Every structure is written in structure tokens, then in C-alpha cells.
């Protein structure tokens, strides 16, 4: 069965301020969607709200995963249902090694008594770390503690590859990466690409999409998706910027704040 | 003759008579007499920010209780065995309440002149050696009322002496099993590492009585002579209802090092004083402490490093978790005295609050009398970071498990520093029990 993630008329507030103002989006497994747009238009809010970030309050609308109400689920239940959020700023967890954390995470998706076999786990970890060109010692380092920006992003993709979710939502996974790191991170995501994986990639820059070819491209402005298309849309954005969309829509300021003023 | 001490009456004659009946040495009896003579005129200690006026440090059901001894490690209760790596344990002293219950020392060490004996016996067998170090350079009898009370009522403990240039590879371990609700622990530990020697010492105070009103008055003197190195680990698990004063004091000479890893896991009301004097040039101390407060527990954890020597380094790291209505005061003091040129005093104190009603206070204090030094401190009192929980939960980990990981992680820097694997494991298990308990 192909899983479907549906976002319908989603409104989200932070500290009483509305950021998302009615987002509609449907993702199917096997598809890669890119969400683009200038800063401050609500892209990251969309990603965080899907996963259930504690500061983001959904005031209207629905998120459904195969018809199940995601908004009714706790954060861990969302993960267990098959959602994954690759974060822009992952937390540092002192005292918990990357390897121990990954094992806990994998086992949280499995029944008690059916925990992953240690050898199996190590094999899978080694393989994925090699694929992402990650130093072996990262496994024994505390999760994200003292990691460089690039290491954190690779670690997020490592987690994605270890957990193999139905949907990977990647929030500016390319920010702060140099070209080499970008290529490696993309290699990880492309490896997962297939019938059993759908992805929502949030990015400022078209350059990531040179490595990961999207099936659909959406543009967000003022807390809504204002334009959708295929790969050609991102290419046009790359050469022409966002001005032509603003002109089409007849707006100057694209940010969420503009409506508030 | 009766001596009034706070609200408690010590019958000095009886104390001395009982010590004589137990066959204590003249040295010890004289020390006790000396303490009894001055106790009345001494002040109580004044732990910063903790009011101990209503604490009873003195009422003891019995000065000494008699408990069973063990003929082999196999006879030890399972709770004690859990603390040992039986097959690899070479040097161990087990004290059962106040009774020296088992002693095993590697023969090779005895040949080298190493002394590991219960403190009372050591005053008989090695009077000059004990007299040289017992309450002279470390803790003084007349420091305050509780140190005098300690000396007067001393009823257990251990003496470890490592001769010059002897490096003991296997740790020396002391386990004190407290399972008699009438037993008070007035233990004195004296660890002396002579010039150029090395030793790792680990102690476990383990109480398994449900409820008791007895006393804890523990003094450890840890003396590292020139170029010596002492690694000191401790896990305290003493019962609710006990009142305690635990003073662990280090003195490091030139080029000496004393490192501490203390797991303060008792449920008792306690004054913990862990002070290291860096007397010598190029002396060092790392002091790592973790504690968990729960129930109505009230604790004061004062950690101090006092620098006299040049180029001395003192680093304090303290992490505490507070639950329920527990109160903990963390005082961290880095004090560089005049003459402690190019010394470095650093400290970090962090308290994690798990309950609205718990109280935690972290007070970093730097006292610097010298110009050419480096010093720094960091202190925080806070709750579990909701973003950390969100991050962990976003990978499928439950809230409870995520909290558990964050708390273990928070305490890990100290747990990791404990020198014996089995003790490390025990501390982890106790943390688990204390954190998960309601």
C-alpha cells in the first residue's frame, strides 16, 4: 500500500501569532516534494508543525497519515507512525552516544522482545556511516555535542537512513553545507528514494535540487503555498528569482509578518 | 563527667570506658579524650545557605553495634556482591555496621609495605604512621563541634598507606553495609600516598534499612605527598531518616594529584563538605560530584578547592537532579591564595529540576588573592529542555524514555569518572531507581 500524508487548510500559530494561513499539500510515498520560498514565509513552521513541535499550535485544519489524525498523536507516536523530521538545528544531548540513541530510536519502532540484534544494528550503522562518509568515532560521541554544522546535518541523514520512515521531512538540511557535504547528504537521501519513501524537502536554494531531483515544487509566501509545479518551477526560480511570482500575485512583502502590520 | 553538646549529652566517661573495653589503642583513646575535653566550647559548622539549627547530629542509639563477620567473599550478602567484581577484586575491606567484617589484601602489596587495615587496628599495628597523619594535615579535631564529635565517637573506618614509589594497580575498595537501624556510622578513612606513589580508592556506603534516626559522621582524609596520585571514588546510599555530616578532605603536595568522583545518592539529610587543599606547586585536583535529591530530603553540597601552590589546577564539576520537595544547595568555591601564581580555578555547577516544588540553588564563588591566575565558573538551575525532548521523541522515543536519557546524560560526566566498572554500574542502577521512583 502506498502511504499518503495529507495536509488540509493548516493554520499554525506561535505565541499567538499566526504563521501558517491555510496550507494544503498531499504527499505520496515514492514522491519527492520541494517547498521553496524566501525567508520568513512559514516553510520551517510547516515542517515543525507536522512533527508536533511544542511551540507551534495548530489552530485549524488537519494532517492525516493514511487517514489517521496526526494532530491527535504525541510526537513519538507520529514518529512511530512513519514520520521523520530532519532538523535545521538538532539538539545536543550530553551523555547519550549517537549509537545508543540510534538503537533506542530503532527499538522504539519495534515491539518489546523484538529489539534489533546488536550485530545487525552495527552492520547497518557501519554501512550507512560509510555511505555518508562519516567518521567511525561519531557513533561513540555524544549526540550532536560539539558537532560541526556539517556533522549535524550528516547525522540527521544517518538517522533518516537508520529509521527508514515512510516520510522524511527535511528542514533546510542544506543550510551551512559546502558543496562536498551537500553532495554526500544528497547521496543519502537519494539512496532512500523509491516506492517506500516520500519526502518533503524544505530549502532556500535551488542548488540542493540539482542533486535531488524533485517530482513537485511548491512556493510558499505569506504562510501559504502560492504556486506549485514540477522541476521546471525550481529552475525558473533559480534564474529569475521570486519577483515574477510576487508580480503575478501583486504583493511586495512575502513574509508572514506583512499581513500582521 | 557529663559534657553538654548542643542538645545532646555525651557521657565522656562512658565513651572512654567503652573504647577501653573494645581494646582501642592508647593513641585513639587519648584522641577521644582530647576531643571530649574541647567539644563543649566548639561551634557548630556553618554550611552556607543551609540552616542546620534544628538538625540532630548527636543522638545515637548505641555508640557501637556488633554485627556478623564474613569468612569469604562468597558469604557476603547479594547487595554487597553486586558492588564487586568478585573474581578480580584483590583489595577489599568490608565493614558490617561498625564491625570490621572482612579484609583481603593482595600479598604482593603487603610485601611492598602497603598497609590496608581497619583504622582501629592500624592504630595498634602502625601507631607512628597513623599518628603522623591522623587529623594533623587534613581535618583537625578542633575544627568545629562535629569534627570533635567525630573523633570522640569514631567507631569504624579504614587506613590505607602506600609507601614511596609504590603504584597500586588494582583498586582498594571499602564497602560499608549498614543494615542495623540502631547503628550510627562514625567512620574515619585515612588514605596516605607517600612520595611518588599511586592508588585508586573506592568506597561504598550502602544502607538497606527502611527507616532509622541514626547518625552519619564520616571524615575522609586523603593525603597525596610529593608527586603522588590518588583517585578517589565514592557512592553513598544511606537511608532516609539519618542525619549526616560527611567531610572528604584532600591535601596535595608538590606535583601531586587528587581526583574525586562522588555519587551522593543517599536519602538522608546531609552536609557534604568536599575540600581539597592544593598546597604544593603544580598540584592538581578534579572534583566531580553527582547527586539526586528526592522526597523531603535536604542537602548541602559544598565543594572547595583552595590553591596555595603555584601552577596548581583545580576543576570542579557538579551535577544534581532534584525531585519531589527535595532541597539542595550547591556551593562551589575556588580560592586562590596569595602566592598561587599561574593557578587555574574552574567550576561548573548545574541543577536539573524535575519538580515544581523542589528547590535547588547553585552558588559559584571565586576568591582570588593573586593577580596572575585564570579562573572561571558556570552555574545553572533549570528544567529538562523541551526541545531536547521534542528532538528525541521525534525519533519515536517515548516521553518517559526521553526524559530518562536526558537525565542519565546530564549525570554521565561524573558517572563516567568512577574508577571501578562494577561501581559505575551500581551508580547507574541507583540513578535509574531514584529517577524513576515516584
TrEMBL record, chain A:
Transmembrane is among the record's keywords = no
| Domain of life assignment | Bacteria
Task: Quote the Gene3D superfamilies the UniProt record gives.
Answer: P-loop containing nucleotide triphosphate hydrolases
One family from Pfam that matches here is ABC_tran
Record GO terms (molecular function): ATP binding; ATP hydrolysis activity
Q: Which SUPFAM superfamilies match?
A: P-loop containing nucleoside triphosphate hydrolases
Q: Where are the transmembrane segments?
A: none
The UniProt keyword set, sorted, is:
ATP-binding, Nucleotide-binding
Q: Which PROSITE patterns match?
A: ABC_TRANSPORTER_1, ABC_TRANSPORTER_2
Residue ranges constituting the ABC transporter domain according to the UniProt record: 5-247
Q: Belongs to which family?
A: Belongs to the ABC transporter superfamily. Ycf16 family.
Name of the protein in question: Fe-S cluster assembly ATP-binding protein
Taxonomic source organism = Lacicoccus alkaliphilus DSM 16010
Automatic annotation (TrEMBL), chain B:
Show where the SUF system FeS cluster assembly SufBD core domain sits. Answer: 179-410
- Gene Ontology biological process terms, A to Z: iron-sulfur cluster assembly
Among Pfam families, the record links this protein to: SUFBD_core, SufBD_N
Q: Which residues form the SUF system FeS cluster assembly SufBD N-terminal domain?
A: 85-174
The text of the family note is: Belongs to the iron-sulfur cluster assembly SufBD family.
PANTHER family in the record: FES CLUSTER ASSEMBLY PROTEIN SUF, UPF0051 PROTEIN ABCI8, CHLOROPLASTIC-RELATED
Q: What is this protein called?
A: Fe-S cluster assembly protein SufD
Amino acid at each position: 500500500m502506498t502511504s499518503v500524508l495529507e495536509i488540509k487548510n493548516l493554520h499554525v500559530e506561535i505565541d499567538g501569532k499566526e504563521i501558517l494561513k491555510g496550507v494544503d499539500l498531499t504527499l505520496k510515498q515514492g514522491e519527492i516534494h520541494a517547498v521553496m520560498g524566501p525567508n520568513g514565509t512559514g516553510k520551517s513552521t510547516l515542517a515543525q508543525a507536522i512533527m508536533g513541535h511544542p511551540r507551534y499550535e495548530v489552530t485549524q485544519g488537519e494532517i492525516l497519515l493514511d487517514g489517521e489524525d496526526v494532530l491527535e498523536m504525541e510526537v513519538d507516536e507520529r514518529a512511530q507512525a512513519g514520520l521523520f523530521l530532519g532538523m535545521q538545528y538538532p539538539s545536543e544531548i550530553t551523555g547519550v552516544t549517537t549509537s545508543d540513541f540510534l538503537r533506542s530510536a530503532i527499538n522504539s519502532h519495534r515491539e518489546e522482545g523484538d529489539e534489533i540484534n546488536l550485530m545487525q544494528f552495527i552492520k547497518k550503522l557501519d554501512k550507512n556511516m560509510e555511505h555518508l562518509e562519516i567518521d567511525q568515532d561519531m557513533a561513540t560521541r555524544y549526540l550532536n555535542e560539539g558537532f560541526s554544522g556539517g556533522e549535524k546535518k550528516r547525522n540527521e541523514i544517518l538517522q533518516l537512513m537508520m529509521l527508514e520512515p515512510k516520510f522524511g521531512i527535511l528542514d533546510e538540511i542544506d543550510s551551512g553545507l559546502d558543496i562536498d557535504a551537500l553532495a554526500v547528504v544528497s547521496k543519502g537521501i537519494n539512496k532512500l528514494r523509491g516506492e517506500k519513501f516520500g519526502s518533503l524537502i524544505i530549502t532556500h536554494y535551488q542548488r540542493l535540487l540539482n542533486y535531488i531531483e524533485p517530482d513537485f515544487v511548491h512556493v510558499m509566501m505569506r504562510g501559504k503555498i502560492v504556486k506549485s509545479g514540477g522541476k521546471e518551477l525550481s529552475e525558473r526560480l533559480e534564474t529569475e528569482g521570486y519577483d515574477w511570482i510576487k508580480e503575478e500575485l501583486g504583493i511586495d512583502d512575502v513574509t508572514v509578518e506583512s499581513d500582521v502590520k | 563527667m557529663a559534657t553538654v553538646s548542643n542538645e545532646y549529652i555525651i557521657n565522656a566517661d562512658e565513651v572512654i570506658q567503652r573504647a577501653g573495653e573494645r581494646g582501642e589503642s592508647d593513641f585513639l583513646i587519648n584522641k577521644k579524650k582530647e576531643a571530649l575535653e574541647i567539644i563543649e566550647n566548639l561551634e557548630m559548622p556553618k554550611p552556607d545557605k543551609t540552616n542546620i539549627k534544628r538538625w540532630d547530629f548527636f543522638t545515637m542509639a548505641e555508640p557501637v553495634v556488633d554485627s556478623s563477620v564474613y569468612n569469604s567473599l562468597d558469604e557476603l550478602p547479594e547487595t554487597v556482591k553486586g558492588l564487586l567484581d568478585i573474581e578480580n577484586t584483590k583489595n577489599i575491606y568490608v565493614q558490617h555496621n561498625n564491625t570490621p567484617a572482612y579484609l583481603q589484601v593482595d600479598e604482593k602489596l603487603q610485601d611492598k609495605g602497603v598497609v590496608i587495615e581497619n583504622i582501629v587496628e592500624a592504630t595498634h599495628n602502625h601507631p607512628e604512621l597513623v599518628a603522623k597523619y591522623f587529623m594533623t594535615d587534613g581535618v583537625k579535631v578542633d575544627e568545629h563541634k562535629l569534627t570533635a564529635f567525630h573523633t570522640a565517637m569514631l567507631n569504624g573506618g579504614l587506613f590505607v598507606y602506600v609507601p614511596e614509589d609504590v603504584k597500586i594497580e588494582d583498586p582498594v575498595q571499602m564497602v560499608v553495609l549498614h543494615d542495623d537501624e540502631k547503628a550510627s556510622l562514625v567512620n574515619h578513612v585515612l588514605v596516605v600516598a607517600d612520595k611518588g606513589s599511586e592508588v585508586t580508592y573506592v568506597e561504598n556506603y550502602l544502607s538497606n534499612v527502611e527507616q532509622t534516626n541514626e547518625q552519619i559522621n564520616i571524615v575522609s582524609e586523603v593525603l597525596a605527598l610529593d608527586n603522588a596520585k590518588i583517585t578517589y571514588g565514592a557512592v553513598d546510599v544511606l537511608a532516609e531518616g539519618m542525619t549526616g555530616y560527611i567531610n572528604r578532605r584532600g591535601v596535595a603536595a608538590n606535583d601531586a594529584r587528587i581526583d574525586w568522583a562522588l555519587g551522593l545518592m543517599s536519602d538522608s539529610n546531609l552536609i557534604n563538605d568536599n575540600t581539597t587543599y592544593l598546597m604544593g606547586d603544580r598540584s592538581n585536583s578534579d572534583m566531580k560530584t553527582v547527586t539526586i535529591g528526592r522526597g523531603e530530603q535536604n542537602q548541602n553540597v559544598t565543594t572547595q578547592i583552595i590553591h596555595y601552590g603555584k601552577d596548581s589546577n583545580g576543576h570542579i564539576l557538579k551535577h544534581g537532579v532534584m525531585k519531589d520537595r527535595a532541597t539542595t544547595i550547591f556551593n562551589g568555591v575556588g580560592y586562590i591564595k596569595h602566592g598561587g601564581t599561574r593557578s587555574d580555578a574552574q567550576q561548573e555547577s548545574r541543577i536539573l529540576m524535575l519538580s515544581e516544588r523542589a528547590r535547588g540553588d547553585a552558588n559559584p564563588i571565586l576568591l582570588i588573592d593573586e593577580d596572575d591566575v585564570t579562573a572561571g565558573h558556570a552555574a545553572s538551575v533549570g528544567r529538562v529542555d523541551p526541545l531536547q525532548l521534542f528532538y528525541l521523541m521525534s525519533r519515536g522515543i517515548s516521553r518517559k524514555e526521553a526524559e530518562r536519557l536526558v537525565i542519565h546524560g546530564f549525570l554521565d560526566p561524573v558517572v563516567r569518572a568512577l574508577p571501578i566498572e562494577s561501581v559505575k554500574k551500581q551508580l547507574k542502577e541507583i540513578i535509574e531507581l531514584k529517577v524513576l521512583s515516584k
